[in-house]
Design a protein that fits this description.
By secondary structure, the chain is α/β, with parallel strands linked by helices. The chain has seven helices and five strands. The protein is globular.
Length: 162
């Protein structure tokens, strides 16, 4: 059994938050967005709109460094800061949920996510930039599978059975 945290990373729409309920039976789980909302007293979209991306990334980094759980479900942009990647790598295992852009876009295009408001072309550019960062993860998992399949695979990895 791997006692270090598993940091789940991936682009918007890869299903990170969906995995929360599946991991609860296997260990302690933290959803970084929920931690940020508790810290700021407002939802992510409102904070992002009010204070901007830089302020949001500052809070995100602080939340990442505060949280202590077996599974940490991160926001899609946590990899934007090299210090966040270093933090996760030094303390645990980084798991990338990998999904083609077209599938991500289909899942997020009608959402109220702050970055989606910029449109498909800009979001695709963001995807391309972040994809190289996600690929630095310790493990990559096909996120086109069902959430249960994804969660079971990651749990097996954590238990050393995959």
């Amino acid at each position: 059994m791997n006692d270090k945290p598993f940091y789940i990373v991936g682009f918007m729409g890869t299903g990170k938050s969906t995995l929360l309920s599946f991991f609860k039976e296997s260990g302690e789980v933290a959803d970084l967005d929920s931690v940020i909302e508790a810290m700021t007293g407002m939802d992510i979209a409102t904070y992002f709109d009010r204070y901007g991306e830089k302020a949001f990334r500052d809070v995100e980094t602080e939340a990442l460094q505060r949280v202590d759980a077996d599974y940490v479900l991160t926001g899609g942009g946590v990899v934007e800061r090299p210090e966040n990647i270093s933090w996760m790598r030094e303390r645990g295992t980084i798991i990338h949920l990998n999904l083609p852009f077209e599938d991500c876009w289909e899942r997020i295009k009608d959402s109220n996510r702050p970055l989606v408001k910029k449109g498909q072309v800009e979001v695709q550019s963001l995807y391309k930039r972040r994809d190289a960062l996600y690929r630095e993860a310790d493990e990559s998992v096909d996120a086109s599978r069902t959430p249960q399949d994804i969660a079971e695979h990651i749990i097996r990895l954590k238990e050393g059975k995959a």
